[in-house]
Design brief:
Chain lengths: 109, 114
Amino acid sequence: DAKTTQPPSMDCAEGRAANLPCNHSTISGNEYVYWYRQIHSQGPQYIIHGLKNNETNEMASLIITEDRKSSTLILPHATLRDTAVYYCIVRVVQSQFYFGTGTSLTVIP
Amino acid sequence: GAGVSQSPSNKVTEKGKDVELRCDPISGHTALYWYRQSLGQGLEFLIYFQGNSAPDKSGLPSDRFSAERTGGSVSTLTIQRTQQEDSAVYLCASSLGSQGAGYTFGSGTRLTVV
């Protein structure tokens, strides 16, 4: 799987949009981009995934650049409960996930 | 069940003892993973089961670690002759295994070797 690069930490004001970047410059054509988050002392939680097109669900939006070398996870209205470590992962179908160190997002009141 | 269930939630064992950790995946999920997470660290892949295929054991750190999945459902991770460095949270995840499907993780088993 391709490696990903994420900033180690970010802050976001409560109620504002949180934009979490991820670089995956060596991504292959058959690799998807996944986002998970891990709230303290819990197992990771699936957020969203995509291949080429931008995706949106009830939790977040995923913006993937046209060359697929980077992506951004957007939490449109961050709440204190969104404070967590966010992992960006690229993988081919039916292979294991390799979790990096992620971005520690702190939502500030 | 509604989610991935792991047991026990906490386990304290003496160095040198064997332990078994159990994972009940979501019914019908064909893919099952084990990861571990040491304090303050990221997730480390251990083993992957997909349907009836041979498991991917490439992440197991030593031959003291083994896992099986009976009947394509419940999985047991066994650690023999536990060492203090085995202390971690052991996480199990399952998925339908369909193209691009996300994984659902359990809450983990916190293993402490004293």
